[in-house]
Amino acid sequence: MSQKVSPEIVRDPHLFAFFVNKGKFQVEEVYNFSQDDLLTEDILVLDTHAEVFVWVGHCADPKEKQNAFDIGWRYIEMAASLEGLSSNVPLYKVTEGNEPSFFTTYFSWDPAKASVQGNSFQKKVALLFGVGHYAVEVSAWFCLHFLN
């Protein structure tokens, strides 16, 4: 007697950005995502089908930061009804600069990019031009005082 072995279905992970537009919760998928899509002003959800991560950028809206788990649970509820995601999938909150290896494995992770501070534009300038420590401090100050 031969037994059929059903292989696990391997699905690609998906990254989603969330917006509140006129009081309505909206989701937009980020296709062909990379580490560069993790913008410091955003909160994003990475769905690996085995777990869900809510990534929280340093300069994200403070109210959204407080509701990071709510965003994750709302995503899980939506994905459970539309995509068949298990409603018992583990949910993790990941903060910018503290990404664990089990999160970074889904990206081509560059630690140098992760260590640069400031808003998204300032980070790109620092990486492009190799701007020094002073610019990073100014960027962090700008983010703290004008974006929060």
TrEMBL record:
Cell compartment(s), UniProt: Cytoplasm, Cytoskeleton
Principal localisation: cytoplasm
Any one of the GO BP annotations: actin filament capping
Domain Gelsolin-like: 25-70
Region forming the signal peptide: none
Pfam families in the cross-refs: Gelsolin
Keyword list, A-Z: Actin capping, Actin-binding, Calcium, Cytoplasm, Cytoskeleton, Repeat
Gene Ontology MF terms in the entry: actin filament binding
GO CC annotations, alphabetized: cytoskeleton
Family indicated by similarity: Belongs to the villin/gelsolin family.
Protein name: Gelsolin-like domain-containing protein
